[in-house]
């Protein structure tokens, strides 16, 4: 039986090593293909832990962490996330950014992902007046050679959570992939949801 608990501020710190471990394990798979290591995760996680308003949903089986899902006010994120919003003249202060959701495959399909969204939205409403939640997802061609045959995109899952895709609103991030020798640029498109009833931009 998996349970999901929410942590904010210093209470997140004991779970950051698990977050890093899960990011490296889960994002190694399609569609992220991320060839990460704990060393290159540490500065990102240290900044996350210090950010005012940040929160982390953690899925446990017993004492073992089997999934994590992060969020923070977009104004606390790096410019690599906020730049496309600023470029459109949008007030970054109106957006709460939902970071990764990573859940070990054995624990999927039991409602944990739905609970990750529910808890992050509740946190965003509790600690901010942000009008919108935003997350981004990597874009890959459907004919990519590493795409597994039965891969099901999460688009319908995200639509059911109330998010709307913005294909032309995207950021780029560089990471070393399992199929590359060096870091390569990846494009991630945003999805937005109103938290307050305000019309989407
Ligand atoms: C994204 C992720 C966390 C979703 O996790 P999940 O726990 O499998 O998702 P859920 O079980 O909450 O929901 C998935 C679907 O299964 C359904 N479901 C819920 N309980 C279920 C059950 N007992 N049996 C079968 N399906 C169930 C949900 O209703 C949902 O379907 P819906 O959208 O039609 O309502 C997980 O797929 C993952 O870690 N993916 C890899 C990393 C990734 O791509 N992350 C996203 C970008 S950061």
Structure in words:
There is one protein chain. The chain has helices at residues 16-26, 38-50, 79-87, 112-127, 155-160; strands at residues 2-8, 55-61, 64-73, 95-103, 132-138, 164-176, 183-194. The chain has one domain (2-142, 152-194): Aminopeptidase (3-Layer(aba) Sandwich), CATH 3.40.630.30. Helix 1 (16-26) crosses helix 2 (38-50). A hairpin with a 2-residue loop joins strand 2 (55-61) and strand 3 (64-73). By secondary structure, it is of the alpha+beta class. It contains 5 helices and 7 strands. The chain is 27% helix and 32% strand. Bound molecules: coenzyme A.
Radius of gyration: 16 Å
Sum up the overall morphology in one term: globular
**CATH homologous superfamily - what is it?**
Gcn5-related N-acetyltransferase (GNAT)
The hetero molecules present are:
coenzyme A
Strand order of the largest sheet: 1-2-3-4-5-7-6
| Name of the level-1 CATH class | Alpha Beta
CATH architecture: 3-Layer(aba) Sandwich
> Regions with pLDDT < 50 over 5+ consecutive residues?
none
Order of helices and strands: EHHEEHEHEHEE
Oligomer: single chain
Secondary structure tally, helices: 5
- Proportion of residues in helical segments: 25-40%
The major pleated sheet works out as: 7 strands, mixed
From the helix content, strand content and strand pairing, which structural class follows?
alpha+beta
Q: Quick check: average pLDDT?
A: 96
What is the tally of beta strands? 7
And the CATH topology? Aminopeptidase
């Amino acid at each position: 039986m998996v349970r999901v608990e929410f942590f904010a501020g210093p209470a997140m710190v004991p779970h950051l090593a698990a977050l890093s471990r899960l990011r490296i394990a889960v994002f190694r798979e399609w569609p992220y293909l991320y060839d990460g290591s704990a060393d290159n995760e540490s500065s990102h996680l240290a900044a996350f832990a210090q950010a005012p308003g940040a929160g982390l949903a953690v899925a446990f089986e017993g004492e073992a962490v089997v999934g994590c899902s992060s969020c923070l006010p977009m104004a606390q994120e790096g410019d690599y996330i906020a730049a496309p919003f600023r470029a459109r003249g949008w007030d970054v202060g109106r957006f709460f950014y939902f970071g990764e959701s990573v859940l070990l495959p054995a624990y999927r399909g039991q409602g944990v992902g739905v609970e990750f969204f529910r808890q992050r939205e509740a946190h965003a409403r509790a600690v901010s007046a942000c009008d919108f939640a935003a997350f981004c997802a990597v874009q890959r061609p459907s004919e990519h050679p590493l795409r597994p045959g039965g891969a099901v995109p999460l688009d319908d899952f995200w639509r059911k959570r109330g998010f709307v895709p913005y294909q032309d609103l995207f950021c780029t991030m560089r990471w070393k992939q399992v199929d590359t020798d060096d870091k390569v640029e990846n494009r991630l498109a945003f999805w937005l949801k109103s938290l307050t009833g305000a019309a989407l931009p």
